[in-house]
Each structure stands twice: as structure tokens, then as C-alpha cells.
UniProtKB/TrEMBL annotation:
HAMAP family named among the record's database cross-references: DNApol_IV (MF_01113)
Main location, first listed in the record: cytoplasm
Reactions listed under catalytic activity: DNA(n) + a 2'-deoxyribonucleoside 5'-triphosphate = DNA(n+1) + diphosphate
UniProt-listed InterPro entries: DNA/RNA_pol_sf, DNA_pol_Y-fam_lit_finger_sf, DNA_pol_Y-fam_little_finger, DNA_polymerase-Y, DNApol_IV, PolY_HhH_motif, Rev_trsase/Diguanyl_cyclase, UmuC
Localization per Swiss-Prot or TrEMBL: Cytoplasm
PANTHER family: DNA POLYMERASE KAPPA, DNA REPAIR POLYMERASE UMUC / TRANSFERASE FAMILY MEMBER
Enzyme Commission code(s) on record: 2.7.7.7
Subunit description: Monomer.
GO molecular function: damaged DNA binding; DNA-directed DNA polymerase activity; metal ion binding
Record keyword Cytoplasm present: yes
Protein name, per record: DNA polymerase kappa
Length: 375
């Protein structure tokens, strides 16, 4: 039997700031850009969260909600360094690790579990939390179960410093009462569609007949159905395979002219399309990365109607995402375009569905090469 951990650090950037500067401990810390220059919140410490402050919120709004909040500029190099240390601790438990971002990873701990010798999944998880704390000072929330998707949901349920174990066989009962949007692969638009069908919870989803899944999810029907009962058997993927192809450029002088920006963006998107084609890949998710004059860095992403490696659709979507950020007076230091979420070879080319947007902003440039990939 497999045992999978999903581990996610608590208020990652903010906790690092509190660790490095004791004066910030126990206080509401807002990591992000300046309110005067339309900065956004990358993250807020747990002390700030009761005021309603959330990631990706304009800093101006955050300051209004939480006037006593202390604004701290992000230090990405430091976060990368801390992330490396945390991943090293993870490696003391298993080599089978799939990092999802700087502060998040799946670990297959099957090899560390030995129930006849009293090494239960719970014990391994507690040990992991303790060692991350003692070796880095950070707290990590952990979900443990036999599948990636269940562990991912579990790690989020008891934050901060959470630990949720879902025993083998209990997955479906655990998932049943949760909102359907918590399930991996069900975005806000799909959740709306399901709601219109009277399906609000994962349990209600799991009860639907196979034809219904076919109708709602097409080719994804079976994988969504298995996930809804916590039976997905997706392996923890340690392969350093290409997960995204991206290209970015930094300008010698900050750029604000929409025409010029559009030209650069289309060039980047065209380059990415070319590299995808050469690698035989088609991607669904288009991400644009932006860095403002004040160094605030964030991304916007959305999904194409169908996987593609053609310049046209990628350029068009990249521009749509970017132009929404184009406001008078705003200037840019860096632009990037990336494509990810690749189609499996047997999935290539299917009928277009509606475009589904996911506008999470990330302050890290994780996964982006420092330099544009060679075409
Ligand atoms: P998260 O794990 O989503 O958030 P968090 O670690 O700050 O808080 P928690 O997990 O306890 O809910 O993201 C990890 C880091 O990524 C976060 O510290 C800052 C960055 N980030 C952004 O820059 N913008 C965003 O919109 C989000 C969600 C995260
Ligand atoms: Mg986190």
C-alpha cells in the first residue's frame, strides 16, 4: 500500500520574514508590493488573516482591512534558499519527492512506513513536521493518505501547523462533505456548472452515474470519478521532465507603451510555441509573468480551449491576460510567457470547450528559467 504526504509551509514568505526579524513575530505581516504603486499581497502572516487579508489582494485593500499590518518587501532569493533547506529535510525521509512550488511537495513515504515495526504514517508525518521545525524554524501543514489528491486536500484542512491523516479506506467518507471545488481539477467555472446540476459536494459528485460523468467531463470522466472517491493512483512524479516551457525578457528601461509591450509579448509567446512544437508538446495553460517598476512580480494564467502549440491562440490568450493588467502609468521591468499543463500524447486535439480562467497571482518566478530557453 502506498502512503503519500502532501506538505505545504504555513504563510511561507511571511513566516520567513518573521523568522529573520524577531520584531515581526506575533504581528500581522503583509508581504508584497507598495500600496501606492498598485502592489499586491503575496501572502499575509496568520496574524493578519482574521482581518480578511488574502494573497493576490491589492495591497491598498489589505492596508484598509488591516491598518496595523506591517508591509514587508519580498526577498525571493531568501525564499528559494529556505525552500531548498526544507526540501533537504524532506529528502531525509524519501527520495520520492515531487515539488509543486517553493513551499509545497508530495512525498511518497511508503518506504519509510513499516507498520510491524511501529513506523506508522502518522509517526512519519509527526517526525517530518518536527524536523522541518527544528532544522529550518518553519511550520509545515501535512496531509497523509494513500493518494495524492486526498493528501493535498487534507494538508489544507487544519492550517497552520496542521496534520490530517486519512486512513486507508476512509477516503470517500472524508471527501464526501467537502465542497466540490476542493477537488483537484475542478476550477471555479466547473464548480458553478456542477452546482447548476445540484452537485455541491464531493459526495454528491461521487453518487452520479457514469453517463453523467461522461456528459460533464468527456475524456476526463473516469479520472474525475476516481478522484471523487479518493481512488486516484497517480504516482509521485520525481522525473525532471519538462512541466512548462517559458521565455522571459527584462527591459533595459521600464516599458509602458502598450504597442511595444504587445510586440514583445507576441514575440515571447511565438518563441514558446515554437519550442513546444519542437518538443512535440501541446499545452493547456498559458501564464504571463510580470514585474513592475517596483519589482513586484506576479503571474496571471488561464486555460486554452484545447491543448495547443500554435502561436495564434497562445499569443491571443497571453495578450488577453496581460492587457487586463495594463493600466495608465503602469510600467514593466520584465515580461514572460509560459505554457504548461501538457496534453498526454493520446489526448492531443479535442473539441474546444469554454475558456476557464484561474487568476491566482504568484510572487515567485518558480519554474521559470533565469534565461529564455534557446529556441
Ligand atoms: P501558499 O502556500 O498558497 O500560501 P502561504 O504559504 O503563504 O500560506 P498557507 O499555505 O499557510 O495558506 O503560497 C506559498 C507562497 O507563494 C506564499 O507565501 C507567497 C506566494 N504566493 C504569491 O506570491 N501569490 C499568491 O497569490 C499565492 C497564493 C502565493
Ligand atoms: Mg503554503
Amino acid at each position: 500500500m502506498r502512503h503519500i504526504i502532501h506538505a505545504d509551509l504555513d504563510a511561507f514568505y511571511a513566516t520567513v520574514e518573521q523568522l529573520d526579524n524577531p520584531e515581526l513575530r506575533g504581528k500581522p505581516v503583509l508581504v508584497g508590493g507598495r500600496p501606492e504603486s498598485r502592489g499586491v499581497v503575496a501572502t499575509a502572516s496568520y496574524e493578519a488573516r482574521p482581518f480578511g487579508v488574502r494573497s493576490a489582494m491589492p495591497m491598498r485593500t489589505a492596508v484598509r482591512l488591516c491598518p496595523q499590518g506591517i508591509i514587508v518587501r519580498p526577498r525571493f532569493t531568501r525564499y528559494r534558499e529556505m525552500s531548498r533547506q526544507v526540501m533537504e529535510v524532506f529528502r531525509e525521509f524519501t527520495e520520492v519527492i515531487e515539488p509543486l512550488s517553493l513551499d509545497e511537495a508530495y512525498l511518497d513515504i511508503s518506504g519509510a512506513v513499516n507498520e510491524s515495526e511501529g513506523r506508522w504514517p502518522l509517526g512519519v508525518a509527526l517526525d517530518l513536521k518536527r524536523r522541518v521545525k527544528s532544522q529550518t524554524g518553519l511550520t509545515v501543514s501535512v496531509g497523509v493518505s494513500v493518494s495524492k489528491s486526498v493528501s493535498k486536500i487534507a494538508s489544507d484542512l487544519d492550517k497552520p501547523d496542521g496534520l490530517v491523516v486519512v486512513p486507508p479506506g476512509d477516503q470517500a467518507d472524508f471527501l464526501a462533505p467537502l465542497a466540490v471545488g476542493k477537488l483537484w481539477g475542478i476550477g471555479p467555472k466547473t464548480a458553478e456548472r456542477l452546482k447548476a446540476e445540484g452537485v455541491d459536494t464531493i459526495g454528491a459528485l461521487a453518487e452520479q452515474p457514469p453517463e453523467w460523468f461522461e456528459r460533464m467531463f468527456g475524456q476526463r470522466a473516469n479520472s474525475v470519478r476516481l478522484r471523487s472517491i479518493g481512488l486516484d493512483d497517480e504516482p509521485v512524479n520525481t522525473e525532471r521532465i519538462t512541466k512548462s516551457v517559458s521565455s522571459e525578457t527584462t527591459f533595459p528601461d521600464d516599458l509602458g507603451d502598450p504597442e511595444e509591450l504587445r510586440r514583445v509579448l507576441e514575440e515571447l509567446a511565438g518563441g514558446v510555441a515554437g519550442s513546444l512544437e519542437r518538443k512535440g508538446l501541446q499545452g493547456r495553460t498559458v501564464t504571463v509573468k510580470l514585474r513592475l517598476a517596483d519589482f513586484t512580480t506576479f503571474t496571471r494564467q488561464s486555460t486554452l480551449p484545447s491543448p495547443s502549440n500554435e502561436p495564434g491562440p497562445i499569443q491571443e490568450l497571453a495578450w488577453r491576460l496581460f492587457s487586463a493588467e495594463l493600466t495608465t502609468g503602469r510600467t514593466f521591468r520584465l515580461l514572460g510567457v509560459g505554457v504548461s499543463n501538457f496534453a498526454e500524447p493520446d489526448e492531443i486535439r479535442q473539441l474546444p470547450l469554454s475558456i476557464e480562467g484561474d487568476f491566482r497571482a504568484y510572487g515567485t518566478g518558480l519554474g521559470w528559467p533565469e534565461r529564455a530557453p534557446q529556441a
